């Protein structure tokens, strides 16, 4: 991976391509760049330093060239207006950064730049739903997942349009520093702390307004009763809805069925408890409603990628000092 900056911070380099989308480039600048006491430093670079045309805003003044990628720990390519392949110099610089071990990330149509550099070959990836067919057609070696908010393939991560880029940015913080810091950053940005990548992109679907907030109480109630063996029928009774209506409302609100949402909520609570307490695995499993310690370990590793103990050793400062 690229060398850290002199202050030891993780170096994020954002590549501003011509006609970069204003909202897309604003996401990493706000999440990682406007965080003076945070664990990241940021550089914005472009192929030809100077004024870079930006769609949806005035031209950007960028002073750093593509050589900034040489020290990148993470490279982010925001979306751009016409997602044609970038120049050979850009694709070569992206490929070289990946070869050095940099984490490669795209927002929206930025996936086309990663694909042109060969970084999505043989991988799953996503982009804004309106560009998904074009990405699949131009790059048949890429397995395009058009409905997912973001896709994490380890070293290479891609996201859908605009808001999905914010979800992916918070996911990167969660990967690097745990759920607690990601949640703190989300609260500052006034956004949802955790939407999983598998949730659907709903930008192309009508969303029914719910001014009365009739479903909000059932989510709040469920979060207060995660230790109980909740069922869809219980949730429906709590919401005062039929089972079918509740399932439909969950899909509308969250893009997933009730039990899938519940599992994610339970795992989110488990992350927080592993980071912030010295509770035993058995106690955490019980408090989160995740069954036996063995079942908890299996579910946690399957969904988070590491066993609970490893997660705790990584993100719980008290646990880290004891090892």
What does this structure look like?
This protein has 14 helices and twelve strands. The chain has 323 residues and is α/β, with parallel strands linked by helices. It has two domains: 180 residues, Class I glutamine amidotransferase (GATase) domain (Rossmann fold, 3-Layer(aba) Sandwich); 118 residues, Homeodomain-like (Arc Repressor Mutant, subunit A), CATH 1.10.10.60. The chain has a six-stranded mixed sheet, sandwiched between helices. A two-stranded parallel sheet has the order 2-5. The protein is globular and about 60 Å long. It starts with 9 loop residues before the first strand and ends with a helix. About 5% of the residues have low confidence.
Which CATH architecture of the largest domain would you pick? 3-Layer(aba) Sandwich
Count of DSSP strands? 12
Distance between the termini: 25 Å
Shape: globular
Which terms summarize this structure?
single chain, 323 residues, Rossmann fold, Arc Repressor Mutant, subunit A, 2 domains, six-stranded mixed β-sheet, two-stranded parallel sheet, 14 helices, 12 strands, 45% helix
Write the topology of this structure:
Blueprint: E1 10-15, E2 20-21, H1 22-33, E3 40-45, E4 50-52, E5 54-55, E6 60-62, E7 74-77, H2 88-99, E8 103-107, H3 111-116, E9 124-125, H4 132-138, E10 143-144, E11 150-152, E12 156-159, H5 163-177, H6 179-189, H7 216-224, H8 232-239, H9 243-254, H10 258-276, H11 281-288, H12 293-304, H13 308-315, H14 317-321
Parallel strand pairs: 1-3, 1-7, 2-5, 7-8, 8-12, 9-10
Antiparallel strand pairs: 4-6, 11-12
Helix pairs in contact: 1-5, 5-6, 7-8, 8-9, 10-11, 11-12
